[in-house]
TrEMBL record:
The encoding gene: gcvT
GO cellular component: cytosol; glycine cleavage complex
PANTHER family: AMINOMETHYLTRANSFERASE, AMINOMETHYLTRANSFERASE, MITOCHONDRIAL
Protein name (record): Aminomethyltransferase
HAMAP family: GcvT
Keyword Methyltransferase: yes
Length: 396
């Protein structure tokens, strides 16, 4: 989720700062020799051995991630579906039981408070997964927005652990531990979820992820996290699975062109700025066919019809030095320097072998093939605008 340059370093002993939260797998990370860092209020593994090795393992075999810092907020009740239609930009009442939807929660100005994945677990039961640092805000906003409806909001983040297995061998590893549920796990569609027993643990198994690879996310009671983690690690080792930290997670999602809250998405951006306008359902209606007046609708409708002030683009580096977040995008070889944008995320790409970055730039320089530069510590490095994502996993 973050690169080493963007995160505070852990101290030499790997001890968490005061008031920093620990997941149920904290001792497991320590025993594996992880370098730990604070992220979103939690002490999390940055890497276990090598950023590059962990990244490549996910692309070529499998990686095991602790995502227990993420939030799980449940919305239940007869009017839960309609309440979420009003609370979020997506059309959640259209989601089938057992499926998931990527969506966002915005303020009245249409600015992104968080990007979310919402699972429909029953006709009247949804689970909203929020980013770690935004969980209190999302839980509070949902509670306020759902209050007029016959539904309740319960934050079950503290009682829930989330473990991900990502990579081309993920299906074999998870299905291999699923006994009587193996066929159901193998048959699971993308952005779908089922209840299954994995290594003897009752889990919600979702075929979702944040790496650009096939993979699974397993939601389990926090008290069962250690046993499941150890089982997955042992079963996956012959297939090349390794534990992977935040640094590899960040380089993987960057290659896949996936936004990170706090970088591509903030309270100064709308979904349209980030080229994610597809998640905004201005056409959603209630059961009587009336338009749903969801929070931020008017602002987003106006934004859709207006010319953008900036556009999110991919940048391919032509040299060796990577761009980093907050560095200026400039017109190449122009004196005086003309700033036309800002990098939101950047790093060397282990898979592609050259620097990559995402940046917000002005529309006139956003076309594919446009030559630009990034001011990297006082020296202009050459980049070119390319389509997102940078990497797409091979298909059979």
């Amino acid at each position: 989720m973050t690169t080493p340059s963007d995160t505070p370093a852990a101290d030499a002993a790997g001890a968490p700062a005061d008031a920093t939260l620990r997941t149920a797998l904290y001792d497991e990370h320590q025993s594996l020799g992880a370098s730990l860092t604070e992220f979103g209020g939690w002490m999390m593994p940055l890497r276990y051995a090598s950023d590059l090795a962990e990244h490549r393992a996910v692309r070529e075999a499998a990686g095991l991630f602790d995502l227990s810092h993420m939030g799980e907020i449940h919305v239940r009740g007869p009017e839960a579906a309609h309440a979420l239609d009003v609370a979020l930009v997506g059309w959640l009442s259209k989601v089938e039981v057992g499926r998931a939807r990527y969506t966002m929660i915005v303020n009245e100005h249409g600015e992104v408070l968080d990007d979310l994945v919402v699972y429909r677990l029953g006709d009247e039961h949804f689970m909203v997964v929020a980013n770690a640092g935004n969980v209190p805000l999302v839980a509070r906003e949902l509670a306020e927005r759902v209050a007029p409806f016959d539904a309740e909001v319960v934050d079950e983040s503290g009682a829930t652990a989330l473990i991900a297995v990502q990579g081309p061998r993920a299906e074999d590893i998870v299905a291999g531990l699923s006994a009587g549920d193996a066929d159901a796990v193998r048959g699971l569609r993308y952005y779908a979820a089922i209840a299954a027993t994995v290594a003897g643990v009752e889990a919600l198994v979702a075929r979702t992820g944040y790496t650009g690879e096939d993979g699974f996310e397993l939601f389990v009671p926090a008290e069962h996290a250690v046993g499941l983690w150890r089982s997955l690690l042992g079963a996956g080792e012959p297939d090349g699975l390794v534990p992977a930290g935040l640094s590899a997670r960040d380089s993987l999602r960057l290659e896949a062109g996936m936004p990170l809250y706090g970088h591509e998405l903030t309270t100064t951006t709308t979904p349209y700025d980030a080229r994610l306008g597809r998640v905004v359902r201005l056409d959603k209606c209630d059961a009587d066919g009336n338009p749903v007046e969801f929070v931020g609708r008017a602002a987003l409708e106006a934004r859709k019809m207006s010319e953008p002030a900036r556009v999110l683009v991919g940048l391919k580096g032509l040299g060796r030095r990577p761009a980093r977040a907050d560095q200026h995008v400039v017109v190449s070889h122009h004196e005086p320097q003309v700033v036309v944008g800002r990098v939101t995320s950047g790093a060397p790409s282990p898979t592609l072998g050259h620097p990559i970055a995402m940046a917000y730039v002005t529309p006139e320089v956003s076309a594919e093939g446009t030559a630009l530069s990034v001011d990297v510590r006082g020296r202009e490095e050459e980049f070119v605008v390319v389509p997102l994502p940078f990497y797409t996993r091979p298909t059979d």
